[in-house]
């Protein structure tokens, strides 16, 4: 399965088009959409593609290796699966499918607190080699329970989220009345009926649930009350006082996700965090925000070598990953791209997408004569 590749879908554009056909509209919109007018969403990919690389054609060249060391682990490629909530709503068992694909490809899988598989299930699939992204619970007791569960399950890298201080304004989700399980509006029911593969697999899998959070959700809540419970349970706004007890308790690595300016980067470093993940949540929070490639480039000038730098948002291909690495990222993550893969190809979608990305990145490395991932910055043409 590891090198599974379906040549009908050699690009993310092909995967996205197929996913759009196979997923009900409300599920596809949730995955595909951004906030407000989707300006930031478009800017992410557009600007990462403005990066230009310098090839060396007459250099001695000994071949390319994508192996990348991060926090003591050596991964097969310099990219991983970003945390995505409600994955099972977009495709049945999507969370488990992508965790398995990451395990088989030796790539990091990051489980969201609001994922549809539990910490323990993902630990079983990945044999304990997974990362956990914590949405910040308002109650310290719940926070500590989640941290202890993740640690006991083998997780050693924790991701805390800085870029969701408030609920996003996403017109498509508002219109679709998105919830878990999906609301039975006439429109949503029609969309399910016209996407039988999705609906039958969803029936077989059972309605998606917030498996990690399940023990803490009072039984029998209707949708409205579940929404209120989640609102009350998580307090998105992080600050130094909220980070400190996490740093004190978590003995592994802590990565802070959503950092896009040097002031926040300095504060994170001062608190003893181990990684900065430059992200704008895939254009889902702040429409007038920068694309991530720009702050990545600036932050890498100041912080590369002092702390691990990761980046996501807008990466859709091997060349996009190459451009991020050349701009200073030590490692990259993708959210939508592997999800489109699963929407298009179901169980095989994760394997296909990771094989595709590896092949594409390999071609770029061989073309520009880059032997190691850490050599990419030597190929950047400063603009
Ligand atoms: C449908 C969807 C759900 C997401 N849910 C979460 C989440 O639960 N936690 C989180 O930290 N980030 C979440 N993200 C953001 C991703 O982790 C990542 O930052 C983003 O998808 C990167 O952009 P890309 O999709 O362009 O690759 C979500 C993104 C999408 C598309």
Bin the helical content: 40-55%
List segments where confidence is low: pLDDT < 50 over at least 5 consecutive residues: none
Large-scale geometry: globular
Distance between the termini: 41 Å
The number of helical segments is 17
Assembly type of the chains comes to: single chain
Largest sheet, described in full?
8 strands, parallel
| Strand count | 10
Structural class: alpha/beta
Task: Report the bound ligands by name, code or SMILES.
Answer: flavin mononucleotide
Per CATH, the architecture is Alpha-Beta Barrel
What percentage of the residues does DSSP assign to strands (E)? 5-15%
Provide the spatial order of strands within the biggest beta sheet: 3-10-9-8-7-6-5-4
CATH class: Alpha Beta
Number of domains: 1
């Amino acid at each position: 399965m590891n090198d599974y590749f379906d040549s009908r879908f050699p690009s993310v554009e092909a995967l996205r088009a197929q996913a759009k056909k196979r997923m009900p509209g409300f599920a596809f919109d949730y995955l595909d959409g951004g906030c407000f007018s989707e300006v930031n969403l478009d800017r992410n990919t557009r600007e990462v593609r403005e990066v230009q690389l310098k090839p060396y054609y007459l250099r001695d060249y000994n071949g390319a290796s994508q192996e990348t060391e991060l926090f003591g682990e050596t991964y097969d490629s310099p990219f991983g699966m970003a945390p995505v909530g409600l994955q099972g709503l977009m495709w049945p068992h999507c969370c488990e499918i992508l965790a398995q694909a990451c395990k088989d490809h030796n790539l990091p899988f990051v489980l969201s607190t609001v994922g549809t598989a539990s910490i323990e299930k993902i630990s079983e699939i990945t044999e304990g080699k997974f990362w956990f992204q914590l949405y910040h619970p308002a109650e310290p007791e719940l926070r500590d329970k989640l941290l202890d569960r993740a640690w006991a399950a083998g997780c050693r890298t924790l991701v805390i989220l800085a870029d969701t201080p408030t609920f996003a304004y996403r017109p498509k989700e508002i219109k679709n009345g998105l919830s878990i399980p999906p609301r039975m509006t006439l429109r949503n029911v029609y969309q399910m009926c016209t996407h039988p593969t999705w609906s039958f697999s969803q029936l077989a899998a059972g309605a998606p649930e917030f498996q990690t959070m399940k023990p803490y959700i009072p039984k029998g809540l209707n949708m409205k009350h579940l929404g209120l419970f989640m609102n009350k349970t998580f307090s998105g706004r992080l600050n130094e006082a909220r980070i400190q007890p996490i740093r004190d308790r978590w003995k592994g690595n802590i990565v802070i996700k959503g950092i896009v300016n040097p002031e926040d980067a300095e504060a994170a470093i001062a608190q003893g965090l181990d990684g900065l993940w430059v992200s704008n949540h895939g254009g889902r929070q702040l429409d007038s925000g920068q694309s991530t490639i720009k702050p990545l480039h600036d932050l890498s000038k100041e912080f590369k070598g002092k702390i691990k730098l990761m980046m996501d948002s807008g990466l859709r291909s091997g060349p996009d990953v190459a451009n991020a690495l050349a701009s200073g990222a030590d490692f990259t993550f993708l959210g939508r791209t592997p999800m489109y893969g699963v929407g298009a190809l179901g169980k095989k979608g994760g394997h296909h997408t990771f094989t595709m990305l590896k092949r594409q990145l390999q071609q770029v490395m061989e073309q520009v004569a880059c032997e190691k991932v850490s050599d990419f910055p030597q190929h950047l043409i400063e603009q």
